[in-house]
Design goal:
It is a single chain. By secondary structure, this protein is of the alpha/beta class. The protein contains 10 helices and 12 strands. It has helices at residues 32-46, 99-104, 106-125, 130-159, 192-199, 246-250, 265-269, 271-282, 305-314, 330-342, and strands spanning 6-15, 19-26, 58-62, 67-77, 85-95, 172-174, 177-185, 214-222, 228-236, 255-261, 288-293, 318-321. The strands form 2 sheets. Strands 6, 7, 8, 9, 10, 11 and 12 form a 7-stranded mixed β-sheet that branches. It has a 5-stranded antiparallel β-sheet with strand order 2-1-5-4-3. Strand 3 (58-62) and strand 4 form a beta hairpin. Helix 3 packs antiparallel against helix 4 (130-159).
Amino acid sequence: MEKNLIKGGIYSKFHGKLGPRAIVWHPSDVSEEIRNTVSLKTINILSGEKGETPKSLAVIPFPSNNIKGLVKAIEIKDETRRGGVVDASITILFDEANDLIFYKYMSNFETVFNETSNKVIELEESNADKDRILAEMKEFYSKLNTILNELRETEISTREEDAFPEVIPEKVAVGKSFRFKIIVCGDPGVGKTSTVLRFTDRAFKRTYIPTIGVNISEKKVNLTEAISIIYILWDIAGQSKFSRMRKHFYQGADGVLLVFDLTRPNTLNSIPDWYKDVKSYLKRDMRGFIVGNKNDLIGNRKIKGSDALKIAEKLKLEYIETSALTGENIDDAFYKLGELLKKI
């Protein structure tokens, strides 16, 4: 994984004549184009309605630059301005590919964002020079990188012992403990890996996935004090170059998640083919879900739930919609599948 997940930090403020503009930034090589785009978009979006500035952090995309920003909106008192305040923002930039990390651990960043915001407000209201604000932003940048590295080390250390756990191909019940092999299939880019990472609480693990066509992970869930399920998750690559290997990955599966992207109709059209491919090697009825992922992208959605449900009913599978990014229904999909398999 790259050493610094954070690509830059920008403090922006609304200027009476020039509009939103970057005041200080770190590192110094953040481009002018990015500084201007971030300043304009963050302040215009988060300036608040009816005089209210959002208190929580927000994630704002900058698709033309393939980055996103974790943003804190702030207000600075200035009696010379209309309304007596100036809108400002503090933004941390990161690659789109790492958005799951920042969504998952957003609450871990709240304190340092609030501390820095309060210090910047204090400096601005005391008319401090830019160098002092820049020093504060540099310290802020350093603190966030430290937090991310600590989270990464904690997460990676827990995975080293079970990155490739022993797989028992058939369901085994020991008392009230069950063990199921679940295969996760679908076209490339539909969010299979993000779905598994979200369920297993491994946001950083995506950069450690080997390019062998499958990644295996494990999670134990205690349904009650007396009943637990161990999920052995086989995240199977969707690229055609791995097609000859898939039959080996399918063997012994207890359940299946067939994942498609709600913004890409062709990925739903592929679901029957994935079903046929899996079933041809299992030689028995399948239990599982068709998963419509990325339901957070409301404006880009191209597929009706009713169309996906028709395919699920035809294949005798359940249907659920999820967002690996926000976590919506991810746990439910796996828990319901576990309950379904437990009853067999």
